[in-house]
Design goal:
Shape: globular
Radius of gyration: 16 Å
Strand order of the largest sheet: 3-2-1-4-9-5-8
Strand content: 15-25%
CATH topology: Spore Coat Polysaccharide Biosynthesis Protein SpsA, Chain A
CATH class: Alpha Beta
Distance between the termini: 35 Å
Helix content: 25-40%
Number of domains: 1
Number of strands: 9
CATH architecture: Alpha-Beta Complex
Length: 196
């Protein structure tokens, strides 16, 4: 069975958080057959790498390259039609992928999805939300110029913030992978404004 969602986890510099990020994906409420985990990283860690593989994740090792190269590689390897991103120092809430699956399944026109980000401290205490003036979620049909214009007018660059809050259809970003490979910083902005 082909997964519907591909979660691309990137670890650019080892900081010791990636195992928590991956566990948050593994403990999703969504049926595990509906998603896959692809981990893109530079450094090998025998213990962690064995754990990732035993959990069903795929690991792709890359040399030092721009972060866009890491993401483009993960997208190219992804089997799912829906691409979700996760930075190594972030975590998903338990029902994130279930919600994403429902949103995309109910509307074939959705190309880009951005949800709210909750900030927590090292003791898992809620600190607030990232970009408080962004609604709980924003959905864009990239084929409708009025959707893009409305969202850009309301949120400007804020809608492009935080890679772990972005979900996109693979068919939308696939034509831009060569450009994404060269992105050195802020790949979230590149992905959010693909069609503008």
């Amino acid at each position: 069975m082909k997964p519907e969602i591909s979660v691309i986890v990137t670890e650019y510099k080892p900081r010791g958080f990636i195992k928590y990020a991956i566990k948050s994906v593994l403990h999703q409420a969504l049926d595990k057959r509906l998603y896959e985990i692809i981990v893109i990283k530079r450094f090998r860690d025998q213990t962690l790498d064995k754990q990732i593989e035993s959990w069903g994740g795929r690991i792709i090792y890359l040399e030092d390259a721009p972060i866009g190269y890491y993401l483009a590689t993960g997208i190219k390897e992804a089997e799912g039609d829906i691409i979700a991103f996760l930075n190594d120092d972030d975590m998903y809430t338990r029902r994130k992928l279930e919600h994403v699956y429902r949103v995309f399944s109910n509307n074939d026109d959705i190309g880009y999805y951005h949800h709210l980000v909750f900030l927590i401290d090292s003791h898992n205490r809620f600190l607030g939300t990232w970009q408080d003036d962004v609604k709980e979620f924003v959905i864009i049909n990239p084929l409708k110029k009025e959707d893009i214009d409305k969202v850009l007018h309301e949120y400007q660059w804020r809608i492009a913030s935080h890679m772990s809050a972005i979900v996109i259809r693979k068919q939308l970003i696939k034509p831009y992978l060569d450009h994404l490979r060269t992105v050195i910083t802020h790949p979230d902005c590149f992905i959010a404004f693909l069609r503008t």
